Amino acid sequence: MLRSLNAIYANNLDYTRRLTADLDDANVCAQPAPNMNHAAWVVGHLALTADRVTCGMLLGIEPALPDVWKNLFSGRSRPNPDRSLYPPLTDLVEALASRHAAVSETLANAQPSLIEKATPHEGFRKRFPTMGQALLHTMIGHEQMHLGQLSAWRRVQGLPAV
Asked: Is 29 part of a structural domain of the chain?
């Protein structure tokens, strides 16, 4: 199961890179519909989730992203069309890749029984009682949902499918 999680997680990162490869950094905060999640927010949100939830809360890996990112990319934040508020897209993608690498390395060295353990964070455990469920959510379900938003964002702006 852990190898499968890592394989799909790597596919998500590859898809992120393909979805962002041809984007003009000046336009990554465009919102073709009110409150639509734009590319900078989606990638930053995925990086922050990997850093604070998957790494920090679930796997006990020290978070590495700046605290200011919480205000920009938490689930309670709202995308802002002001490009000056966000780091360059390449920095966001690299931050996501870095946190993916930390998660993947940890899981590659973990015991298979990890997936049966109770989720360590009490609030998260209410929705996802086991580490397997929590990791499936953060690494796969949550990422793929937001990557679907990024794909739709591209298409609304007339960009080709990836």
From this structure: yes
